[in-house]
């Protein structure tokens, strides 16, 4: 019985956590804004943070702090209010449109970045914004040179939002599967407990019947009952 209660509690906790996580992601996505550049120092960071005013925005996240990071494709900088993340492995932080979260950019290695830092301090590592700056500069040059512009725009840059939508679809397919597994496991445990108890009840009935009607043996002293122990 304890196991059944435990499984029910775990399923309820999972559904509650998933609901809160989804609500948090929606809160984060509503604050994401593309900007021309990110803060270059603590003073600029404080000014931009006060302007974004994340602490006064309604949300359901564990924390909600100002970030300015690159996007997945390293061609835009994004201001967003999101929970802090630990960035590990000398890489830059990114905002992922599909996951609606700030996370480590596994392919963007950063020499300036430490082995471990908090995502909200991304502005300290300006190297992470150089790819975006180079992209913007090359786009400006392409505008001045129509022939080069046509050549550069012939191959579209992939959209982080499009790739994010695919990730979201994958998660939406997994959620019903996890809930189904929980329900099947709960049903299996309930059946096992029912069969085990039924077997115990049947065994007790047999033992009680034997005690009430013990077998008799002829030992030459009459019909004395013989109890089998």
TrEMBL record:
Leader sequence residues: 1-17
Keyword Transmembrane helix: yes
Keywords annotated in UniProt: Membrane, Signal, Transmembrane, Transmembrane helix
Membrane-spanning parts: 177-196
Organism: Crassostrea virginica (Eastern oyster)
Identification of the protein by name: Uncharacterized protein LOC111101750
Keyword Membrane part of the UniProt annotation: yes
Domain of life from the UniProt record: Eukaryota
């Amino acid at each position: 019985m304890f196991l059944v209660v435990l499984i029910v509690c775990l399923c309820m906790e999972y559904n509650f956590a998933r609901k809160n996580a989804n609500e948090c992601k929606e809160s984060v996505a509503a604050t994401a804004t593309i900007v021309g550049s990110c803060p270059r120092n603590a003073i600029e960071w404080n000014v931009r943070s006060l302007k974004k005013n994340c602490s006064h925005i309604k949300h359901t996240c564990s924390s909600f702090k100002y970030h300015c990071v690159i996007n997945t494709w390293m061609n835009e900088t994004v201001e967003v209010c999101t929970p802090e993340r630990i960035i590990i492995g000398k890489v830059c932080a990114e905002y992922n449109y599909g996951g609606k979260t700030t996370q480590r950019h596994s392919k963007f290695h950063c020499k300036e970045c430490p082995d471990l830092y908090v995502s909200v301090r991304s502005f300290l590592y300006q190297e992470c914004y150089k790819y975006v700056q180079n992209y913007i500069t090359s786009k400006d040059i392409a505008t001045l040179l129509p022939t080069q512009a046509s050549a550069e725009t012939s191959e579209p840059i992939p959209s982080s939002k499009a790739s994010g939508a695919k990730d979201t679809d994958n998660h939406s397919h997994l959620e019903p599967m996890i809930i189904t597994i929980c329900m099947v496991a709960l049903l299996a445990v309930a059946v096992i407990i029912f069969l085990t108890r039924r077997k115990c009840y049947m065994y007790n009935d047999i033992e009680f019947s034997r005690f009430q009607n013990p077998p008799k043996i002829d030992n030459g002293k009459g019909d004395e009952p013989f109890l089998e122990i």
